[in-house]
Amino acid sequence: MAKTFAGARLRRLREERRLSQVDLARVLELSPSYLNQIEHDARPLTVPVLLRLTEAFGVDASFFAARDTARLTAEVREAVADEVESGAVNASEIAELAERMPGMARTLVDLRARLERLSTAVGRRDDAEMRAPTSHEQVRDFFSRHRNHIPVLDEAAERLAGEIGVRAGETRAALVRRLIERHGVRVQVGEQPEGELHRYDADRDVLRLAPHLRPGQRAFRVATVIAQLEFPDLIEAEVADAVELGDPDTRALARIGLAHYAAAALVLPYRAFHGTAERFGYDLERLADHFGVGFETVAHRCSTLQRPSLPGVPFAFVRVDRAGNMSKRQSATAFHFSRGGGTCPLWNVYEAFASPGRVSTQIAEMPDGQRYFWIARTVSRRRGGWHTPTKTFAVGLGCELRHAERLVYSAGLDLADRSVITPIGSGCRTCERLECPQRAFPPLGKSLAVDPDRSTFVPYPVHP
């Protein structure tokens, strides 16, 4: 069993609670010198000490686990990619920073993002490497920081769902009734202006929905309006607490994102959805049929089941198009999505386009050795007739391999068979796999072995 060293996290937690080492040592029934050694990683956390810590601080044991370090390490590596390439810093220094001083590591990642925004403000708009994050990217990062779970909205939506009688098969009727009886808002289905899926007219108290929306889509949009009308203070409080949402447009987009989150929690109440997901083995297509919503909706909802008292499988969720662009990405795992794009072409999320509508699975291993079990399938949307444009995406849902046996998709698979593992990375520019034949860019911080008398299958051979 691996030893757990979590000195920096313990020290940060103690300081946040304004406890001295002597005070905490007394609570944990340890000597101050022993606690000091734990905080400086001279001693590991033992199981008895860990149990006392979770009881004393009211945190989950996973707070002290090392698995989140992998994602933070990858984020730091990407933030200092130029320094890695020049040899100014190396991989071991980055890993040590993320493990021992996670607060400093996170500050470094945030500082890099701020420098990108500053560079754009002073005119370097043509420099792709210094591009400032868009409002959508900032909101996406906001949800990632919360591990895609907003407790206050989830709980409020679940209470409201119970109050108005939201149940599988009766969801839309219950939501429409709430909108009429509580807010006097009528729902009309009819042709909308070109491209509009819904429009809420607050002056006339009318919610208009496009006729081609499926029942689950109509329910979601009704739920979104209810969330905006009934949870404005909760939504505003979340936005106000997020200092990274700086400009008005980004805050407005965050409010929409939070309303969508609450709508999903209203259509798919936490306990009901969690219990059914566990019973169905997270069979996404079966869950979609049971609750009357789409595949992408249940996949995304599965990634939000992180209530400490009733956790689901911790998932990473992603949606990509054929060109590799990520339009959605959230993670409750240590899996790191490259902030600069250029994800791994060996990932099965991209293979999903070769078999539209069919679920594919993959056991993938990241460069740090962490293994994940991935599910991927395409989803398509269109507005109506034969000549109308269609949107097609691949949706992926991944969890650490140790959780895979809880999923119906792992039935009959040998999860310990190394021969079926696919080595992937977060992106070619920052990936550490030197022998990858699919690499699109030279590895950072390595000297290329340029030899006119020799060729290799690997596109960018490096000196040993």
TrEMBL record:
SUPFAM superfamilies: lambda repressor-like DNA-binding domains. Keywords: DNA-binding, Transcription, Transcription regulation. Gene3D superfamilies: lambda repressor-like DNA-binding domains. Pfam families: HTH_31 (PF13560), Peptidase_M78 (PF06114), ScfRs (PF09856). Residues 10-64 form the HTH cro/C1-type domain. Belongs to the short-chain fatty acyl-CoA assimilation regulator (ScfR) family. This is Short-chain fatty acyl-CoA regulator family protein. It comes from Actinomycetospora termitidis.
